[in-house]
Structure formats: structure tokens, C-alpha cells
Write a structure and sequence with these properties.
- There is one protein chain.
- It contains 7 helices and 10 strands.
- The protein is an alpha/beta fold and 242 residues long.
- Strands 1-2-3-4-5 form a 5-stranded mixed sheet, sandwiched between helices. A 5-stranded mixed sheet has the order 7-6-8-10-9, with helices on both faces.
- A hairpin with a 2-residue loop joins strand 3 and strand 4.
- Helix 4 packs across helix 7.
- The longest helix is centred in the first third of the chain and has 23 residues.
- The relative contact order is 0.15.
- Keywords: Magnesium, Metal-binding.
């Protein structure tokens, strides 16, 4: 099984598990659903990756950060449940599972599962998004759109598209449902590694908001900002954000 296939398979399976958690805890509190989803997906991913790639290191949002990853040749960067709030709200579809592989300084494989949509986007076979006619669509948080996204909207004469998790936002650009995702409010490597791997496979522009490269598997996993957009908008977006 290739690394691409493994990423897609375990992300999809973790998503199926999360849908089961949702059903099992439909009458529980949102906090109980969040906690159960985070833990059960993390435990599954750690076991699955450990069984298939026992020599690889793992950086997970829900796990203790093992410094051995800093000297490892291969590191899986995972977010077992991206968008816990959306997951906890029964009926919402804008949450995701992220599985990415870093090797020799680069993201080399990745998958973003959107379980409630029945979709998993996996490298290297992600198709470029279809063309869009009309005003650029800037995807933002449904509760707290960052000021930089509003500035990009104004500069591009765009419209806002509200959505939940980071993975769902990047996936919406890949799927052609939006055109630009720009974030500057603070994220970690697990929030963007798999989405960025998938976006690159689809031919999209990815960078920090100052135009510099996104770098993964660093000692400090904080990676607070990024731009993912259709390549034809990259120059205009970076003119606003840099």
C-alpha cells in the first residue's frame, strides 16, 4: 500500500468511526461528543499508523508531542477531528479528518476526509477545481472572519462564504466551492498539513500570508497563518496580505 493510499484509507476509516460516535452520542451533550470524537479518532489513527508504518513518527493534535519526530525521516501529521464544534452540532457537514506525511522536509502525501459529505480528497489524484465565473469567493469562519480575509474580499471585490473547520475550508477551494482561503488567527501544523498537501496536488497556490513557504515538522508546531487559493488569485491576495 502506498503512502497516499494509506493516508486516504485511515482518514476515511477515522471518519466512519466519527460518524458512529455521532450516532451513538446523539442524545449526549456537545462536550461529550467532542471529547469522545477526539479521543476515539486519535486512538484509531495512532494504532493504524503504528501497525502499517511502525518506524514512522506521528505528530497528532490529541497526542503528547514526542521530540523523536524532530530527528525522524518520516513523520505523520494528523488532526483526528478538525472542527470539533461543527462535529458536535448534529447535522453539520463542515468538519474533517487530516492525515499527512512529511518526509525529508516536504509534505509527500495527504488526505482530508469529509465524513459527513462522504468525500475523501487524497493525493496525488486530486483534480483541479472547475472554473468559476463570477466574483471571487472568500471562505471564512462562520463565527469570526479574520480582518485579513475581509481586506482580501474588499480588494478582490469578492463575496464571503462561511464555513467551519480549516480542512473543510481548504477542501471547498479544491472542490471549486470557493476560490480563496486566507487565515491569520493562529493555527498549528496539524490544522493545515493534510489540506495543504491536497491543495498542492490540485494545483492550488499555498503559502504563508507573507508569501513564504509553509514549513512543517518544526520544534514549535505553531503555524499561525496561510493562504490557499486558485493560482490566478495568488498575486492579488498576497498584495493585500504582505
Amino acid at each position: 500500500m502506498s503512502d497516499h493510499e494509506l493516508a486516504g484509507r485511515v482518514a476515511t476509516a477515522a471518519g466512519t468511526l466519527l460518524l458512529d460516535v455521532r450516532r451513538e452520542l446523539a442524545d449526549a451533550s456537545a462536550e461529550e461528543r467532542k471529547a469522545a470524537g477526539d479521543k476515539r479518532s486519535h486512538d484509531f489513527l495512532m494504532e493504524a499508523l503504528g501497525a502499517e508504518r511502525p518506524d514512522d513518527a506521528v505528530l497528532s493534535e490529541e497526542g503528547a508531542d514526542d521530540p523523536v519526530r524532530l530527528s525522524a525521516d518520516r513523520v505523520w501529521i494528523v488532526d483526528p477531528l478538525d472542527g470539533t464544534r461543527e462535529f458536535s452540532e448534529l447535522g453539520r457537514e463542515d468538519w474533517a479528518v487530516h492525515v499527512a506525511l512529511w518526509q525529508a522536509g516536504e509534505l509527500v502525501a495527504g488526505a482530508v476526509a469529509l465524513p459527513a459529505q462522504g468525500v475523501t480528497l487524497t493525493t496525488p489524484t486530486v483534480a483541479p477545481p472547475p472554473e468559476h465565473q463570477g466574483r471571487p469567493r472568500i471562505v471564512v469562519s462562520r463565527t469570526r472572519p479574520p480582518a485579513v480575509a475581509l481586506a482580501v474580499r474588499d480588494a478582490l471585490d469578492g463575496v464571503l462564504v462561511e464555513m467551519g473547520s480549516a480542512g473543510a475550508k481548504v477542501a471547498s477551494v479544491v472542490q471549486g466551492l470557493s476560490d480563496v482561503y486566507v487565515h491569520a488567527g493562529g493555527q498549528y501544523e496539524w490544522d493545515s498539513a493534510a489540506p495543504v498537501a491536497v491543495a498542492r496536488a490540485a494545483g492550488l497556490h499555498t503559502s504563508r500570508i507573507d508569501g513564504s513557504p509553509l514549513v512543517y515538522n518544526r520544534a514549535d508546531p505553531l503555524l499561525p497563518d496561510l493562504v490557499v487559493c486558485r493560482p490566478e488569485f495568488a498575486d492579488a491576495v498576497l498584495a493585500v496580505t504582505t
